[in-house]
Structure prediction request, 126 residues.
Amino acid sequence: MSLEITAKLLYSLPEQTGQGKNGTWVKQDFIVETEEQYPKKVCMSAWSEMVGQFKSYPPGTRLKISFRVESREYNGRWYTDVRPYKASVEAMAAGAGAPMDTPQADFAPSTSGPVAAQQAEDDLPF
Prediction:
């Protein structure tokens, strides 16, 4: 089962390494926060090359993350991991800012007309 979320990278936990039957492994947990009415923090466990990819993103980066939820049993207890397998930088939400290729001059306020006259009378900065 594959799932996908858009979340903001908050921080990373210390990197873990070890030796297994298939050689050396590397794992690092990253904490992300979902973007919804009631945001949730999620700990994602990145393995191998995904560790390097997540390390390349600074905290605060908005990411689109594809992941799998996996559970396993060990000594009568169950453990669940959220494992990302693909992550990419997500563009800002619509209306959050001007597109990168649009000149800012196109959005300059008008200096004439009734709205400009009323704005000139207001001495408040907002």
In short: The domain at 2-91 is CATH 2.40.50.140 (OB fold (Dihydrolipoamide Acetyltransferase, E2P)). Residues 30 and 54 are 8 Å apart (CA to CA).
